[in-house]
Amino acid sequence: MELKGCEIFACIILVVIFIILIVAICWCTCGSFEKFENIVSSNNETLKYKLKGGKHYRVLNHEEDIIDVMKKLEQEGKPAIIAVLADFCGYCRDLKRSGVLVGVAKKYPVIVLDENHPQSRALMEKLEFNGFPLISIFSNRNLRLYKGPRETNSILASMV
Questions:
Q1: Among 22, 64, 98, 120, which one has the highest count of C-beta atoms within 10 angstroms of its own C-beta?
Q2: Over 19-61, what HEC string results?
Q3: All domains of the chain, ordered by start, with CATH?
């Protein structure tokens, strides 16, 4: 069975329409491909740290609201670490490489925002902290700045 010229043309048109439809769905769902990339990359980072053993480690994408996350943590009744990390910051890179936050995440939730998250600046202003990395402890509806050593045991001791 041979396809005629008009049948081949019709198949090509259907494929093009299908591709346009997929692109339109992605665009409408994510707002833009840049946001779509943020969602995918933050979820990959979260998965990477969970596989290392930090079962409570979570990187927020730019669409997620830290207030909603804090309300959920409050309902669970567990203290948590909320950190703001910057890709350009050497101390932040060292903190990620050291596994300190992953170590804490084995016992308590660790929520990470990057410096470009829409709410990271507001969080830093609330805690009156202008540098990176920002490490804070959320417990009993209270958010306080952690000023101790960047070591797993020190952070865990300050959680109680």
A1: 120
A2: HHHHHHHHHHHHCCHHHHHHHHHHHHHHHHHHHCCCCCEEECC
A3: 40-158 (3.40.30.10)
